[in-house]
Design a protein that fits this description.
Strand content of chain A: over 45%
Largest sheet of chain A: 6 strands, mixed
Radius of gyration of chain B: 13 Å
Number of strands of chain A: 12
Largest interface: A-B, 27 and 34 residues
Radius of gyration of chain A: 14 Å
Oligomer: heterodimer
Number of helices of chain B: 0
Structural class of chain A: mainly beta
Number of helices of chain A: 0
Distance between the termini of chain A: 41 Å
Number of strands of chain B: 11
Strand content of chain B: over 45%
Helix content of chain A: under 10%
Largest sheet of chain B: 7 strands, mixed
Order of helices and strands of chain B: EEEEEEEEEEE
Chain lengths: ~120, ~120
């Protein structure tokens, strides 16, 4: 069964420092992976995705993610965090062939960036 | 270019009542999916509509139903509301093969439903 796990409920980082939000996945077949961000009381905003190709994917707002097949991970990164990056981040994987319209989400990781 | 729009943004209902939520997809998209996000949880897939028919469904009871109109907009209906139905309901807009094809799904701002 397709699943993703976000092992950290919360990540704290100082402004200007690099940040990493972790995601691991378990899939049958090729993993198509997505990151979304949710600001307080808002919907989900798409950040980036991995489909195939280069293992380092660049996305919106300076975020990037590294796909690692051997470690079944897709960690979200940013070289220099901003206070405005504070939000809830979700990793997601596409559903199985029997349910192609489905995204399966992790539990989410709250990122807190302190000045 | 308007993104995914949802209404209402907030509403409060009583147990046993019925609710209808509305969604207009992003321009160029003809497929609408609905997700439920309970507090502290990731979104859960309810169902997907394409060509005015329910195409796929998640693990939700029949109390949850939907509709898609010829202009691609969609409604989510929930009957016999339970306290546990309190959640953020997200509409997602896409092409028919997303996300399995790798195409991106875009979400609206959501409708907050509180059942008392």
């Amino acid at each position: 069964a397709q699943s993703v796990a976000q092992p950290e409920d919360q990540v704290n980082v100082a402004e200007g420092n690099p940040l990493t939000v972790k995601c691991t996945y378990s899939v049958s077949g090729n993993p198509y992976l997505f990151w979304y961000v949710q600001y307080p009381n808002r919907g989900l905003q798409f950040l980036l995705k991995y489909i195939t190709g280069d293992n380092l994917v660049k996305g919106s707002y300076g975020f990037e993610a590294e796909f690692n097949k051997s470690q079944t991970s897709f960690h979200l990164k940013k070289p220099s965090a901003l206070v405005s990056d504070s939000a809830l981040y979700f990793c997601a994987v596409r559903g199985p062939p029997s349910n192609t319209g489905k995204l399966i989400f992790g539990q989410g990781t709250t990122l807190q960036v302190k000045p | 270019d308007a993104g995914v729009t949802q209404s209402p943004t907030h509403l409060i209902k009583t147990r046993g009542q019925q609710v209808t939520l509305r969604c207009s997809p992003k321009s160029g998209h003809d497929t609408v999916s609905w997700y439920q996000q309970a507090l502290g949880q990731g979104p859960q897939f309810i169902f997907q509509y394409y060509e005015e028919e329910e195409r796929q469904r998640g693990n939700f009871p029949d109390r949850f139903s939907g509709h898609q109109f010829p202009n691609y907009s969609s409604e989510l209906n929930v009957n016999a509301l339970l306290l546990g139905d309190s959640a953020l309901y997200l509409c997602a807009s896409s092409t028919p093969t997303a996300p399995y094809s790798g195409n991106t799904i875009y979400f609206g701002e959501g409708s907050w439903l509180t059942v008392v």
